[in-house]
Amino acid sequence: MPPPKTENNKERKQRGELYHAFAPDILEERYRAMAAKNRYNDNRDTSRRARVRLWRDITQDPRPLPSENPNPEADEDQFHSTDPWIESPIYFDFGYNLLIHPTAYVNLNCTFIDTCAVHIGARTLVGPGCHFYSGTHPLDPAVRNGTEGPEGGGEIWVEEDCWIAGNVTILPGVRVGRGSTVGAGSVVTKDVPEYSLVAGNPARILRKIESEWQGKGKGKGKESESAEAPMAEQAEKLEELEKTVG
Q1: Contacts of 171 by beta carbon, 8 Å cutoff, 6+ apart
Q2: Per-residue pLDDT tens over the stretch 30-52
Q3: Could you tell me the pTM of the whole model?
Q4: Distance from C-alpha of 125 to C-alpha of 227, rounded to nearest angstrom
Q5: Which residues contact 74 (CB under 8 A, 6 or more apart)?
């Protein structure tokens, strides 16, 4: 049986349980995200500061921007390890479920169905036209019931130092292990072990990737720690949000 439309709807969504995507509380959040997305995609101010401000609006990041430095290069350097590089256009449903590490890069025209959290790890590169689908629908059409029925989901994790090549699709509940590469055009339907090269539809392991970083805990220096702090704050904020909704 599908859940009632008014009972802890957002809380269920965040956990990946069945929820109603067209209930008023969810629609309100999607409309907010739509406006934030349009501001980001339509922005003509190419400065790093302007883009970071709009990105933080998308993810509901409460951190204030640092004071502006009159030197443009010095001002841009202030955001070197605090916020990810996100090319526009970008598409998403909610925005606050985009947990993208400050040292990650997302190329243009990517789509995030962020019903549940989508995690992108440190130094990970995402190619153009990629799709991250953390939302899903019941298989039974009687339960699915068009826009009247419930939806579900599962968190997506892309760990640190991955390369997601162009036009890759990653499905709900999938984890891509650190140091892995997903070949262009692949559809990832199940977990990818760390330091693996996968490709195809569905993606399959082609070979292991040899790296001197394996087992050495790359990225634990001062720069990485400072970059991880904002992402941890955002994840903590999301957890608090989940506890208070209902």
Answers
A1: 133, 136, 187, 188, 189
A2: 999 999 999 999 999 989 999 99
A3: 0.86
A4: 16
A5: none
